[in-house]
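Narrative progress, year one. The postdoctoral researcher (J.K.) led the effort to move from monomer predictions toward full complexes, under supervision of the PI. The following entry was the first complex the group processed end to end, covering 654 residues in total.
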Amino acid sequence: MKNLPEDKLTPAAACTSPTLRDIGELGAIERITRSLPNRQDVVVGAGDDCAIVRTGSSATEDLVLTSDPVIADVHFTADAAPESIGHKALGRVLSDIAAMGAAPRWVLVDIVSPGDTPIDVIDGIYRGMGRLASEFSVAIVGGDMAEGGSLEIHVFGVGSVPTGKGLLRSTANAGDLLFVTGNLGGSALGRHLQVEPRIDEGVFLRNWASAMIDVSDGLASDLRHLIEMSGVGCDLELEKLPISDAAEDMSDGRLAVEHALYDGEDFELLFTIPVERRDEFSAAWKNEFDLLCTQIGTITSNKEIIRSLNDGRDATIIEKRGYRHFA
Amino acid sequence: MKNLPEDKLTPAAACTSPTLRDIGELGAIERITRSLPNRQDVVVGAGDDCAIVRTGSSATEDLVLTSDPVIADVHFTADAAPESIGHKALGRVLSDIAAMGAAPRWVLVDIVSPGDTPIDVIDGIYRGMGRLASEFSVAIVGGDMAEGGSLEIHVFGVGSVPTGKGLLRSTANAGDLLFVTGNLGGSALGRHLQVEPRIDEGVFLRNWASAMIDVSDGLASDLRHLIEMSGVGCDLELEKLPISDAAEDMSDGRLAVEHALYDGEDFELLFTIPVERRDEFSAAWKNEFDLLCTQIGTITSNKEIIRSLNDGRDATIIEKRGYRHFA
């Protein structure tokens, strides 16, 4: 109850109200999103990587809107270079925009920091953001600065996608094949700061994928979001998972495949392709990108669970695990 | 140097880099905005109440983008009701959108809070935001939640205005008359939590005002922004200032007029009207609104200073003062 209006709660409420830690990040978000004020020009509201809104009935493009905070001691540690912090803060938002198949255009940046923060640190954060913004033709058009107890960067991003072409989490179909870009796991060894937003890949996938999400909370967790919102299930073929060298190098006693499943902040794209387009898709991808793209499973009509297949024998349910605030 | 990457700074830089407190909020913002990545579809970048961007060459509306944080112990105290905190967080952003002559449409909300925050508090914040959002037909389309040391609400807002009709701070002309809505000063007694965003008034002023800003840092400070960005000056007629009852009630030994000049968070509109439209404007305003609208000065070509006139005799320079982070 730090910094909170204790005396405005009735004593009963103060005693009986569960806390954020009690109900968790997803519980709180589910509770909040039950009754948000809406408008007719909102195509997709809270719950996907970005919201989708339509500026007018004759618009040729939809806009995607998203925001992400990075916070000291949560998303970065004291030994991170300011440039890396800035890069990550913007990179997370660009990854969300990529997951919609959209192109990023404009961002705003709120920085909260203690008054004794050296201006060199702020310069470094902006240098890191600026470099990534330039790479993807993104304009930083404003924001705000405020004093607070620890360093935080909140980035708000706007992207665009041809009307009706935004890719959702909720549209995977039984029979579709599940793919992921790049390699998974072990981002804590450094890659979490070096987000490479898959913008070009996301724009390309706009014409191929039936559903898409970015891997930010961890493969198992983000795949669960995708299947639950699509009302489907998934046979995940563990032996096919593209495991990063970092996941192999993690010396914490856990298997590399566990890191690939449960570590967060890979910032790769996880998407589904209709099975009849498999060969055509694979050829088109190879023609366009050097980046690894691996089929790791199949969408099923068996809701609720994700089965892991090891050579078709050892079917188990993947744990509900991944990074959570307030856990 | 709390939570900051000390070891990535060279010892020399760590010793010699000024801090945010040394250069202040405006100094930091000026430094940051010198070299932000830009795009051709940005009509107005950082520096106004909102940025203005254009979605396409055939678009009939421009979008305005803005963000504002409210932070425990900075923007509200421990005795504020959660509903009021939510109301203020959204109200500040709507006030920025109003200052562009735009209509608000969509917002995202990032909440940072300690894990032991009662969910009732979060519910209350959303209830306060939701009520205000519904009043102005604003959709809350998403956002994020993260764990942090103190309660913060970051609101990112998008509004729209007919193409090219967004009102700026930088377009006042010598000879224009200076007006302000409502009454000024003493918001600390409670009004800072009860922001009434002047949306309808802002939309109306789109067809009348030559320049506009909202009074958030305090009249003297925001008027200075307006004249500096317009390259003009202002004769401010102190005896005409509409002083709030709260400013009269502040029992801190300062004059009510000082509160009207230097207190922040009035969230009224400060704007300029070409002198030849004075009578027509006043009639149209009275026909449309009950809200007080007062002519308080005249824009001059005498840059750099704001003179205060008391019956034309006692001309003094208004102090550079107002709310500043890192001060």
